[in-house]
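Most newcomers find our protein records easier to grasp once they have seen one. A record pairs a protein's sequence with a compact description of its fold. An example says more than a description, so a record of this kind follows:
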Amino acid sequence: MNILVCVKRVPATGGKIVLTADAQDIDTRFLGFTISPHEECGVEEAVRIVEAHTGSSTVLTLGPEVASEQLRDAMAIGIDNAVLLQTDGADWDAYATAGAIADAIRELEAQAGAFDLILFGNEAADTGDFQVGIRVATALGRPVVSGVKGIAAADGRVEARREAAGGGWEVFDLAMPAVLGVKEGLNLPRYPSVPGRLRARKKEIRTITPARRSGGPTKERLRLPEGTESQVEVIGQGAAAAPAVVELFRKLGVLGR
């Protein structure tokens, strides 16, 4: 099996998100970077499939030179090869990103044979784009399923399962090569070990400089969702607050009258 996983370097969003002054990007000066939980599951699944069937796995990202950090994290848990589509760090829209990835895949496959599976995270963790995987599949003329939470590949075919509305599962049987958009919950990703990180440092990352296509959607601005306001009311201090607490519980229906 020959597996490709496409990931994106995104800000770690555990802290407060602040926009740049022009509202075009997230201010990342005080944020770390990572890949989304969906993509972590994609990396883990690629490693598991190759461990089960033998073969080779590759991780690819489009971004600045520092995105090699995320590529090495993937190699530290068992991915064999890495490809960086190096840019100046500006965020590319889904149209340009998919075009660059499709071009790179054609080049890689011309040299080493077709990828049996190409895995994407179901959507980008920062911009929420659901388009890139589908656009790449369309450009390559390959079947695609998104929202995948179960994969079984063998004998030139892959079974992809996703949760159905109202419960149950939708099951798709696809001929490979195929493209899948995977979701968190597909598996439990492992953490890179210290020996794995040391090995990943020594591995070569192939760098390609992609041409950016024009003609995609334009971004007007980003807007942060409105936060929920919270209020705190001090109803008393010490033992003197006990009657007020009891009355509050009664109002909430916790205590009977």
